[in-house]
Amino acid sequence: MSELAIKNLHVMIEDKEILKGLDLTIKQGEAHAIMGPNGTGKSTLAYTLMGHPNYTVTEGEIWFKGQDVLQLEPDQRSRLGMFLAFQYPVAIPGVTVANFLRSALNARRRAANPTDKGIPIPEFRKMLKEKMELLKMDSNFAGRYLNDGFSGGEKKRAEILQMATLQPEIAILDETDSGLDIDALRVVSEGVNALNGPDLGVLVITHYQRLLNYIKPQFVHIMLGGRIVESGGAELALHLEEHGYDWVREKYENGEPQSH
Ligand SMILES: Nc1ncnc2c1ncn2[C@@H]1O[C@H](COP(=O)(O)OP(=O)(O)O)[C@@H](O)[C@H]1O
Ligand SMILES: [Mg+2]
């Protein structure tokens, strides 16, 4: 059973400490959501998990399948079974979605076995067709040029299809950035629901409370000031939807004893 364990994580960007002792454990097969107001460090966590060079870990640990993730390059993390939705370049002119996915999959296979000749094309086509049916995607989508004039929803669709193709054990999806229209939200939610199962653990990061009308995470965490301050089940998200974040701020920003 794979497990992603984040312990007492402190991260700085430039001279500013953004993550201030974050703890989180996600097991393969579990669906978690992190919610929190803007500026609390949610994307910082996603970028740090990805290994983005601008984010400096000053304290704490990240473990996945018994490996010290902080010692691994982004591609090694991916090979190990971690998927981060935005780890690949945004636009590749002249490359179709299908070709991009096949290259990504072959790179992954070659990393595991240097003599691998790549997935045979008929086998790849069959697999892609199955995944696209599972995700209820139009078969024309695979022939489109990657991110060429894609809407927010289509970019998300490409990411989710990539996730389905690479079959990671843990997927981290940061949903706060631009282009989050209702279509994109629906694509991500349906994709996560279709793919989440005993083999795939998911962490969805969002400031968008309505995401949870679509995805039903078993675990919901509230992040504030660079730490996870509250954890619970789906009822926590419903509570946030009704009451917003003020009660969280009052509880954790006004000098009351903190849980960490
Ligand atoms: N590249 C950067 N350089 C300097 N500060 C940054 C950078 N990216 C984010 N920050 C700051 O880090 C804090 C957390 O940002 P972020 O992780 O994007 O929060 P969230 O995703 O929760 O909205 C914010 O105060 C933001 O201004
Ligand atoms: Mg963000």
Describe it for me?
With about 260 residues, this protein is an alpha/beta fold. The chain has one domain (about 5-255): Rossmann fold, CATH 3.40.50. It is built from eight helices and ten strands. The chain has helices at about 40-50, 75-80, 95-110, 120-135, 150-165, 180-195, 235-245, 245-255; strands at about 5-15, 15-25, 30-35, 55-65, 65-70, 80-85, 170-175, 200-205, 220-225, 225-230. The strands form two sheets. Strands 6-7-8-3-9-10 form a six-stranded mixed β-sheet, with helices on both faces. The mean pLDDT is about 85. Bound molecules: adenosine-5'-diphosphate (ADP) and magnesium ion.
The computed structural class is alpha/beta
Helical proportion, percent range: 25-40%
Radius of gyration: 19 Å
At the first level of CATH, what is the class?
A: Alpha Beta
Query: Overall pLDDT, averaged?
Result: 87
Which ligands does the model contain, each kind named once?
A: adenosine-5'-diphosphate, magnesium ion
In CATH, the architecture is: 3-Layer(aba) Sandwich
Strand order of the largest sheet: 6-7-8-3-9-10
CATH topology: Rossmann fold
Largest sheet: number of strands, sense, barrel closure: 6 strands, mixed
The domain count comes to 1
The tally of beta strands, per DSSP, is: 10
